[in-house]
Amino acid sequence: MGKPSRSEVHTVRSNAAQKPRSVPSKKSVHARKLEESEYVLCEKRFEGRVPKTTYSLTTQGKRALESYLNHMESLIKTARDG
């Protein structure tokens, strides 16, 4: 067997310190749900060999976020005014 490449060594080291991932990360699960709800758009690309993912808020997502923030502000105001 030949000497492992730099990326293979990095993978081995990072996997040695962490449990192997057999399930998607919480972040990716949340992102997928937001995309399925049409709140965000997902753009995946490569820059050289490095994968890059960009999420953009849709108009529907902006409305939902604004509604959520208004609701949270209302709850905070109610809690403070007691």
Give the topology:
Blueprint: H1 6-17, H2 26-36, E1 40-47, E2 50-57, H3 59-81
Antiparallel strand pairs: 1-2
Describe what this molecule looks like in 3D.
The protein is an alpha+beta fold and 82 residues long. The chain has a single domain, classed as Winged helix-like DNA-binding domain superfamily/Winged helix DNA-binding domain (Arc Repressor Mutant, subunit A). Helix content is 56%, strand content 20%. The chain has helices at residues 6-17, 26-36, 59-81, and strands at 40-47, 50-57. It has a two-stranded antiparallel ribbon. A hairpin with a 2-residue loop joins β1 and β2 (50-57). The radius of gyration is 20 Å and the shape is elongated. The termini are far apart. Residues 3-17 have low confidence and may be disordered.
